Amino acid sequence: MPTILFFLNTSFLLGLLGLSFHRTHLMSILICIEAMMLIPYLMMTTLMFTTSTPTVAMLPILLLALSACEASTGLALLVATTRTHGTDHMKTLNLLK
């Protein structure tokens, strides 16, 4: 079990590093955020299976629903910014111009 938690923590940190280093396109930012949202889902699911408590059973489903809402909102923002600015580069999305 500790190896699974180590791999999940490492993959969450890789998503965080990808978010901090690859900020050129909005799509890559959204993919890193989605990966960071899927890792707590996997952690809660493994916690549910290891503890076998029915009170924790609803948390992964709730987190997955929130993650789907976040993904749809992010894709809607991506489409809107691509239509208005013509690209998804983060350098062109400066609203203070």
TrEMBL record:
<keyword id="KW-0830">Ubiquinone</keyword>
<dbReference type="GO" id="GO:0016651">
    <property type="term" value="F:oxidoreductase activity, acting on NAD(P)H"/>
</dbReference>
<keyword id="KW-0813">Transport</keyword>
<comment type="function">
    <text>Core subunit of the mitochondrial membrane respiratory chain NADH dehydrogenase (Complex I) which catalyzes electron transfer from NADH through the respiratory chain, using ubiquinone as an electron acceptor. Part of the enzyme membrane arm which is embedded in the lipid bilayer and involved in proton translocation.</text>
</comment>
<dbReference type="Pfam" id="PF00420">
    <property type="entry name" value="Oxidored_q2"/>
</dbReference>
<keyword id="KW-0496">Mitochondrion</keyword>
<feature type="transmembrane region" description="Helical">
    <location>
        <begin position="6"/>
        <end position="22"/>
    </location>
</feature>
<dbReference type="GO" id="GO:0008137">
    <property type="term" value="F:NADH dehydrogenase (ubiquinone) activity"/>
</dbReference>
<dbReference type="InterPro" id="IPR039428">
    <property type="entry name" value="NUOK/Mnh_C1-like"/>
</dbReference>
<dbReference type="GO" id="GO:0042773">
    <property type="term" value="P:ATP synthesis coupled electron transport"/>
</dbReference>
<dbReference type="GO" id="GO:0030964">
    <property type="term" value="C:NADH dehydrogenase complex"/>
</dbReference>
<dbReference type="GO" id="GO:0005743">
    <property type="term" value="C:mitochondrial inner membrane"/>
</dbReference>
<keyword id="KW-1278">Translocase</keyword>
<keyword id="KW-0520">NAD</keyword>
<protein>
    <recommendedName>
        <fullName>NADH-ubiquinone oxidoreductase chain 4L</fullName>
        <ecNumber>7.1.1.2</ecNumber>
    </recommendedName>
</protein>
<keyword id="KW-0812">Transmembrane</keyword>
<keyword id="KW-1133">Transmembrane helix</keyword>
<dbReference type="InterPro" id="IPR001133">
    <property type="entry name" value="NADH_UbQ_OxRdtase_chain4L/K"/>
</dbReference>
<feature type="transmembrane region" description="Helical">
    <location>
        <begin position="29"/>
        <end position="50"/>
    </location>
</feature>
<comment type="similarity">
    <text>Belongs to the complex I subunit 4L family.</text>
</comment>
<feature type="transmembrane region" description="Helical">
    <location>
        <begin position="56"/>
        <end position="80"/>
    </location>
</feature>
<keyword id="KW-0472">Membrane</keyword>
<keyword id="KW-0249">Electron transport</keyword>
<keyword id="KW-0679">Respiratory chain</keyword>
<keyword id="KW-0999">Mitochondrion inner membrane</keyword>
